[in-house]
Known about the structure:
Layout: E1 5-6, E2 13-14, E3 19-20, H1 29-32, H2 40-52, E4 57-59, H3 68-79, E5 88-93, H4 101-114, E6 119-124, H5 133-145, E7 149-155, H6 159-170, E8 176-182, H7 189-192, H8 195-202, E9 205-209, H9 220-223, H10 226-229, H11 243-263, H12 267-277, E10 283-285, H13 292-299, H14 308-320
Amino acid sequence: MSNTQRLGRTDLGISPLGLGCWQFSEGFGLVGGYWEALPREEVDAIVAAALRGGITWFDTAEVYGKGRSERALARALQAAGARPGDAVVATKWWPALRSAHSISATIGERLAALAPYPIDLYQVHQWAGFSSVEAEMFAMARLVEEGKVRTVGVSNFGEARMRRAHGALASRSLPLASNQVKFSLLDRRAERNGVLAAAKELGVTLIAYSPLEQGILSGKYHDDPALARKLRGPRRFMPAFQKRGLARTRPLVQELQKIAAAHGASASQVALSWVVRFHGEAVVAIPGASRVKQVEENIGAQDLLLSPLELRRLDELSRAVR
């Protein structure tokens, strides 16, 4: 697998795997509180390990701890000695209870939080704002034209909204770089609802978040169900982590482990390799990490080459999960 590929039809080059930075929220806020706060030293070590391992881009958001994740990422990049431009930085504007005017009104806060690093990819985090898709895209286009951000993407957009976003930006001679959606071996809605097909048609990169289903596809909760009972936060109560949920996904996880053993790899690495290889370069992924060991393991997926037979076998078992 090539170490870099183009982000959509932009001139940005990215690695097949980025690092999702939701876990850097310092446990703050409704969204950021999903994860326990990580020590600053651990965040610094995770980002440094990602850079050493060839990860070239990092995805954060305003709503991840109300800027805390952005600031933590900037501090960690500086601690690792990364200069502006050494890594691609992506963040997101939160539209809930806001209009498109907020995009320009708050860009200064985003730039300050990430300083000295520029915003390479600025995304609308989800679709539920007060303004139309077109108004949001025109506001984003103005930021590009003013040199405040480099490229524009969306997140959690369905096919129709993604097409509208693409059209609005095209009218300003700009590409829609990406659409960030939940996608994994256990969540393949993007294949069924037209999002992936449209993204391929339009030259939009699909960014897969939760590609390991928050750890389910690692197999550790199947091997030791007691670990799920020790979880803190909402995951402990999610059906996927309960006895019935683990039984439902066990055949797929066992196949991941079987393939992993044949490659001297881990189930997580196999699951990530499938996400970024099954559809060629149409899909990239942003697994998160709460420990250095996790990001180092994720990095190994970039060089793991699955055979066509292995890719198809996982495809079949994935579709069979109900």
